[in-house]
Design brief:
108 residues; two-stranded antiparallel sheet; 7% strand
Amino acid sequence: MPCSAYLFMRTKKKDVRTEAGEVSDVPSSVSSTAAITAVAENQATVPALVQPAVVHEPIPQEQQWELLKWILEEKRKLKPKDPEEKMRIDEEKALLKQFIRSKSIPSL
C-alpha cells in the first residue's frame, strides 16, 4: 500500500523571547518533519482494529407504533421555511400515517 502524509510547516522564523528579555530568531524545526514522517509510517503499518457489530433485541411492535406516533407529532410541530420543505414534510407525514394505520409495521 502506498503511504502518504501531509506536512504543514511555516516558512517564517519565529521570534522567541528568552528569560533575559532578548529576542532571538529561531527557525521552525525541520527535524520535526522526520519525526512526523516516522509516526505516519508507523500508523500506516498498524492494522486497524475492527469492532464487531452489536446486535440489539428487536423492538416490540407496540413500542414501534408509539415511536411512529411520536415522530408524526414532532413533524406536525415543524414550521416549514419554503414550499419545497412543506411538501417534503407532508410526504413524510403521509408515510408515517400509512405505517401507523397498517396492521403490521416493517421491522426497524
